Amino acid sequence: MRELTELRAEFPILRQRANGYPLIYLDNAATTQKPEGVISAVNNYYREANANVHRASHFLSARATHAFEDARDTVRRFLNAGHTDEIIWTRGATEAINLVAHSWGLSTLKAGDEILISAMEHHANIVPWQQVCRFTGASLKVIPIHASGELDMAAFRQLLGPQTRLVSICQVSNAIGTVNPIPDIIREAHTVGARILIDGSQAVAHFLVDIQALDCDFYVFSGHKVYGPTGIGVLYGKRDLLQDMPPWQTGGEMIERISFEGTTFNSPPFRFEAGTPNVVGALGLAAAINFLGQCDHNKIQAHEKSLLKQATEGLNTIPGLQIIGTAPQKTSVISFVMEGLHNQDIGTLLDQQGIAVRTGHHCTMPLMSVLNLSGTVRASIALYNTETEIQNFVEAVAALQKDSLSFTTETEPATTAATTIPDAFTYESPQVGDTGSVIEELQVLRGWQERYRHIMLLGKKLPALPDPMKQEENRLHGCESIVWLHHYYDETTMRLYFAIDSDARIVRGLITLILSALNGRTPEEIENFDMEACFDQLGLMHHLSPSRGNGIRAIVKEIQLTAHRYR
Predict the structure, then answer these.
(1) pLDDT given for residue 405 in this prediction
(2) Does residue 218 come out as left (phi exceeding 0), alpha (psi in the -120 to 50 range) or beta?
């Protein structure tokens, strides 16, 4: 077995720098990085074995077919499944769940049947079952969680009954890291005759999975979560269940015989693999599994557990920081929020120090609603992370907290002229000078870390909207953070004035930049103003996440659409 330090060296992407700092990659719950063996497997396939599989009689096709089916058997052994024909290739866990929902769910469930899921599920394990219930008349029931993020097993037992036909649940929560008591859940579900699907996407990279010992009916995961390529996933299904399930997608490969009068379908797994498969993805996933086979899984678990403990203890010392998800059984995920700092701002500022984390709802909006949160900052750990990286991460978050004391969202009373409208609300322009001077101030600063600090200071000058004006009808959708927008047209001067606010400090600063350019102008001037050129002068969009960049553009678009209505 190879040492963890030796294994880290297999990941070339970790050698690079991000924004001038060594890359610290803590977004592993979203996707893991790829070792040299996976990269080589993908490269070698296209160099030496690129061909369609199964039906051709030539040398390359035979080579590709053998490698493809060997990869299927590699997955079988990885999961300790009983039969290779129980392993179905999909594009990922999402497609695997949809396959079960459409093939098994639509053909089996009826009105009065119930499906149980948990409150911590990924959207991909919610929406397919909602659709199945819509078409079959079955009901979807949700198992609640405790405040710690631990599954409420007492509530699960109350919900479980003879009407329960399926329990579909994650092995590990992607958002808060809770490890669910899967063996107990499977055993109890089977006592009432229910089938069980396990979403193992966040489990397979962190501990060994034994399908036969678990005795689940279906198990799904995505290759890119376990050091493999994107676009490849796995559905395990018990042989007898798969044999009785109709195909979901139709086309080539899944057919046994076809005529214009009718079609007979292939046996599993090919029945569920219509079209040209992702051969290279399967080979890359097999290479990732073989890479993990070189590792001592006990050492990996101990290492990741130690890093999670280090991160938890470190973050718990930071004033105003709250860790979300404190279940006794957790793995490799730590989510938090911090008083006075928006999650997106934290993610952006950490990125400027080379630290990659994930911010937002993590495709668990219902869970965030249960927790009364809009989202969290999530750091997620892999076998290649180090104690030094976790220490640097904790220190960076602590520094953000200290620095945040300089950036109050309270706005000082305006001392300059404002435009007053009959209802006495005042549209105040932030006193920062013209757009050109603001851009010049930002351009002379060294690096984007200093620029973001200055942008947040600009946001301090933005007049805050009073709470009564922060209503849903005034909320601008399409933004990563919450943005409220009001406008007033002065018929005497024929000028438009805007009052805009956000719950994120960086966005407040960028709003200040936008208003310095557009506020108090005529509709024609606003509509014709090239705000994108201002962003280009700063190189702004290269340093914002795509979603945040789209949100800033959405603000400008709404302002210019409003101006168009007054022309």
Answers:
(1) 67
(2) beta
